Automatic annotation (TrEMBL):
Species of provenance: Pacificimonas pallii
Leader peptide range in chain numbering: none
Domain EAL residues, every copy: 24-273
Protein name: EAL domain-containing protein
């Protein structure tokens, strides 16, 4: 909508856009404040080995507990943080927090992998590589148990700088797992160019009528690449059983557990293991 101003000129004004922009900036400010105020927290979803039914890993997932007591989910605020660049600071916070928790698990004798999500834009932040290099050198820390999840869309463009960064991260010993696999259009040749250790079948594939067809395709690619294959968003025993019978290695999903506050994860692991042995079995229906 255009309005005539006092001087007779035309001012282009779009109330819908202004509202979106205003809301956007407001959210960015709120998110900055939340980070400073310690309102961002990580919850941990168990990952289960399909052959042994034991918890072998856990994914750290961001939660924002607002002052009003509501919990905001990452799909609502990560895109904003990515657009404004705040994701770099949030990402460093996530790394530090997940690292501390991984050390707590190790100290309790609970040897499971911890994975964190890294947004595409973070790979342009030199602090990310610096921080990973610092962590990898810490005594007693096994980067092989600290996995980084990257998105499939990132790998489609043949970016030399990205390739170098991922190669360096991989040489530090951190496993790289492609998240949301099956949602982009990457091909084998593109995947072969990167030091990939695992793929995560996107949950949108698991929930469809074509589940078996789609999952078969992804499993074939994973097997050809020789990487660990994880399914996410597994909600039924039928899905789990099919995945186990068709060569999938691990799963995450509400069938086993949603993401939990860290103390609840520890309680689950300790309950499941009964003692201080390493990976813990989990009861799923
Ligand atoms: P993702 O990495 O693919 O994480 C899996 C999402 O699926 C999580 O949602 C998880 O709670 C959900 N989920 C797991 N099992 C099931 C299930 O059986 N059914 C259904 N319907 N959902 C299930 P969440 O925690 O809301 O996170 C959404 C996305 O936000 C993540 O997808 C990830 O892309 C992003 N994200 C979360 N934490 C971070 C972070 O620390 N950094 C970055 N850059 N992104 C993050
Ligand atoms: Mg993930
Ligand atoms: Mg995913
Ligand atoms: Mg996702």
């Amino acid at each position: 909508a255009a309005k005539e101003d006092a001087g007779g000129g035309v001012v282009v004004y779009d109330p819908a856009l202004a509202e979106r922009t205003g809301r956007f900036l407001e959210l960015d400010t709120d998110l900055r404040n939340a980070l400073d105020a310690g309102q961002l927290d990580l919850h941990y979803q168990p990952r289960i080995d399909l052959a042994t039914n034991r918890i072998v890993g856990t994914e750290a997932l961001l939660r924002w507990r607002t002052a009003g007591g509501d919990v905001a989910l990452p799909d609502e605020f990560i895109p904003i943080a990515e657009a404004t660049g705040l994701i770099d600071q949030i990402g460093i916070f996530v790394l530090a927090e997940a690292f501390d928790r991984s050390q707590e698990l190790a100290a309790l004798g609970l040897r499971i992998a911890v994975s964190v999500n890294i947004a595409p834009r973070q790979f342009r932040d030199p602090n990310l590589l610096a921080e990973l290099t610092r962590l990898a050198a810490l005594p007693g820390f096994d980067p092989g148990l600290f996995e980084l999840e990257i998105t499939e869309t990132m790998l489609i463009s043949d970016n030399v700088q990205l390739k170098n960064t991922l190669a360096r991260i991989s040489r530090l010993g951190f496993p790289l797992v492609i998240d949301d696999f099956g949602t982009a259009y990457s091909n084998m040749a593109a995947l072969k160019r990167y030091p990939i250790d695992g793929i995560k079948i996107d949950r949108s594939l698991i929930g469809t009528d074509d589940f078996e067809t789609l999952a078969s395709g992804v499993l074939t690619i994973g097997k050809l690449l020789g990487v660990k294959i994880i399914a996410e968003g597994v909600e039924t025993a039928q899905q789990r059983d099919w995945l186990a019978e068709n060569g999938c290695h691990e799963f995450q999903g509400f069938l086993a557990s949603p993401a939990l506050p860290f103390p609840d994860l520890v309680a689950m692991l300790q309950h499941a293991s009964g003692a201080n042995d390493s990976a813990a079995p989990v009861e799923t229906v």
